[in-house]
Every structure is written in structure tokens, then in C-alpha cells.
Amino acid sequence: MFRPLIRRQFDRLAPVWDAMRMEDTLASYEAALARIGDPVERALDVGTGTGAGARALHQRFPSAEVVGVDLASGMLDEARRLVPDVEFVEGDASKLPFGDASFDVVAHNNMIPFLNEVRRVLRPGGWTLFAFSSGPETPIWVEPDRLRREFERRGFTDFAEIAAGRGVGVLARAPGGD
Ligand SMILES: C[S@@+](CC[C@H](N)C(=O)[O-])C[C@H]1O[C@@H](n2cnc3c(N)ncnc32)[C@H](O)[C@@H]1O
Q1: Among candidates 37, 46, 15, 1, which has minimal Cα distance to 173?
Q2: Among 15, 110, 170, 177, which is 20 to 30 Å from 152 by CA?
Q3: Residue 116 Cα, ligand 1 centroid: separation in angstroms?
Q4: pTM (2 decimals)?
Q5: Are the C-beta atoms of residues 107 and 44 closer than 8 Å to each other?
Q6: Do 54 and 67 contact (CB within 8 A), yes or no?
Q7: How far is the CA of 178 from the centre of ligand 1 (A)?
Q8: How far apart are alpha carbons 157 and 174 in whole angstroms?
Q9: Element of type H or E holding 149
């Protein structure tokens, strides 16, 4: 019901989105990514907007195939222009257009969680990350304790909360790894 509104809102914001970005927008996202020591072949940035998180994934895991997904085609047009090394796909985070167990990392910066889909597309033992760039002041903010409970209910392990800049990142590992 809200999807067309969200899409319209972000399509309108697309041309000015990067100009609105604060210097430390990705600090907690990058700090959490730095904790992932496992080999990464395929990584996904959900709610990628203009692709800043996808670019950070590509820089952190240069040999990985990186994909960014978003509802808003206007944001994706900007992302394709700004981050040519990454594939960008239009799609809904509540029904991701990817197969089961198809990613080693599924990351989000300032994005609403759809944890059942994250669980589905992550390979066993894969990592997920939710970063909120202004901590509790972020317009999209989910309390880390609440995320932890939701992760644990789905069998995720290795929960970690990482503060960097004004932001907070939350990292967790899908069940079924070694
Ligand atoms: C607050 S912006 C964050 C963009 C980017 N991650 C960043 O940090 O610059 C949220 C983004 O999520 C997208 N979005 C919102 N709901 C979505 C959904 N259900 N599926 C996919 N993308 C969605 C919006 O279009 C928007 O680009």
C-alpha cells in the first residue's frame, strides 16, 4: 500500500540525495563490514538508493560480485551513473528478486528490516548488517536490542553492535555456518 508513495518520494529525492549526505553517513556501515573476515563472493546492498553502500561493499570486497537493490528507479538511475562497477536491480526488500542462499553478505544502510527475506537469500553462515547513520536520530531507526531479539528468533548468531561516527551498526550471522 505504501510502496508507490515511498517510490515516488525517493524518485523525487534522487537528484539531490548525495548532496544531502553527511560526512559520516557510512561510518557505522564500513566499521561493521570491516569485522567480516570470511571470504565474500557475492554481496547485496538492500535499499541501496544512489548506491553508496554498494560502493563500500565493492571497495571492501573487490573480487566479489556486488548487487544493489531498491524500489525507486530514480535512485537506481543515479546509482548506475555513480557506481558503474556494481549491478543495480529494481525490487522490493519484502520480496527480493534473488534465489535462496545466493549471497554471503546482505547489508543495509538506513533501511527498514525485512529479516525473513534476509534469512532466505543469505547462505548458511553468511553475514547481515544494518547500519543507522545517525544512531537513534536516524529517521529509519530500529533499536539494536529489538533487532537482536528478531535475529535470535530466526537462529542468527554472533550478534555485534558497532558504534562509529554518529552511527550504530548491527552485525549478525545466519544459522548453519561452520
Ligand atoms: C533512507 S534511504 C537510504 C538509501 C541508501 N541506503 C543510503 O544510505 O544512502 C532508503 C532507501 O530504501 C529504499 N526502499 C524503501 N523501501 C524499500 C523496499 N521495500 N524495498 C526496496 N527498497 C526500499 C528507498 O527507495 C530508498 O532509496
Answers
A1: 37
A2: 110
A3: 17
A4: 0.94
A5: yes
A6: yes
A7: 32
A8: 7
A9: helix 144-153
Q: How far apart are CA 125 and CA 104, in angstroms?
A: 8
* Residues contacting 29, CB < 8 A, separation 6+: 53, 56, 107, 109, 129, 131, 133, 167, 169
Q: Would you give the DSSP letter of residue 69?
A: E
- Expressed in angstroms and rounded, the spacing between residue 169 Cα and the centre of ligand 1 is 16
The pLDDT tens digits of the residues spanning 113-162 come to: 999 999 999 999 999 999 999 999 999 999 999 999 999 999 999 999 99
* Ligand 1 geometric centre to CA of 7 (Å): 9
Read off the pLDDT of residues 43-52 as tens digits, 9 standing for 90 and up.
999 999 999 9
Residue of the nearest CA to atom 24 in ligand 1?
A: 47
Ligand 1 atom nearest residue 25's Cα: 8
Residues within a 6 A CB radius of ligand 1 = 6, 10, 47-49, 52-53, 70-72, 75, 92-94, 109-112, 140
